Amino acid sequence: MQENLTIARPYAQAAFDVAQGSNAVADWERALRLLAVIVADNDMRRVINSPGLTKSRIAELVVAVSESAGLVLGAQVKKFISVLLDAGRLSLMPEIAQGFAAHHANVDRVAEVEVISAFPLDEATRNRITSAMQARLGKEVRLSVAIDSALIGGAKVKVGDVVFDASLRGGLSQLANVFNIK
Q: Which long-range contacts (CB under 8 A, 24 or more apart) does 1-9 make?
């Protein structure tokens, strides 16, 4: 996963630069999000990896699927799809979309913060976390919350590549490491 993010990073940067230069960042972000879903689909993966199809035919199919989903892709996005196909990197579209969104958020001074909690968070707790993260990061914070009962208690907070683990499960794992328990 980390290797894919590393490989996807320059593609995400290039896409963002083109989108920003043509004043179409929102359109590109929408397109890349949809393309990430399309490329991640198991049936589409089989099509993309099919040795019997040419790269241009695969590009046509990806464009057709996106258009059937209601999104008409611009010429620059279509060219980007071809570039990725030529480089054998179309499968990295989810990571490219993630990197593109991170560039967009950085330019807009917005941080995407994900809280993974053992239990649902009430509004007051969400507000406290948002305020604390805004003070720490110096950016506007978009907070998303996911529930993972396997954490037992507490929460994990993800900001980009950084994870703050304040979960009970994480604490128990650290304690087990101290005592070399497996």
A: 4/92, 4/95, 5/95, 5/98, 5/99, 7/89, 7/92, 7/95, 8/89, 8/92, 8/95, 8/96, 8/98, 8/99, 9/99
